[in-house]
Amino acid sequence: MKWLIALLTVMLIATQYRLWVGEGSLAEVSRLEREIAQQQQKNAALVAENRQLLQEVLNLKQGTQGIEARARHDLGMIREGETLFIFVDDKADSE
User: Fold this and answer.
1) Concatenated DSSP letters of 3-46
2) CB 66 within 8 A of CB 60
3) Running along the chain, 95 residues long, what does each successive block of 10 average in pLDDT?
4) pTM exceeds 0.90
């Protein structure tokens, strides 16, 4: 009878070890859930960025306004007859 109790105790300890420490343990499940939540946040940010880039591509394909805005912003281009004013912030230079 003692050997049966000892065998059952060993089996109980073996199953508890896997539950708390081994593969598929509660700690690992919790860690994986946190990683999934972080990855879902990253995915949502990337989806938003993709939507914005797709909208920008469509604007560039559809007309000259998108191209003109891009050239003005990125390249500093101006139309004929326009005057470009650049304001320098002295506070930013002194810091």
Assistant:
1) HHHHHHHHHHHHHHHHHHTSTT-HHHHHHHHHHHHHHHHHHHHH
2) yes
3) 89 79 80 96 98 88 79 82 82 62
4) no
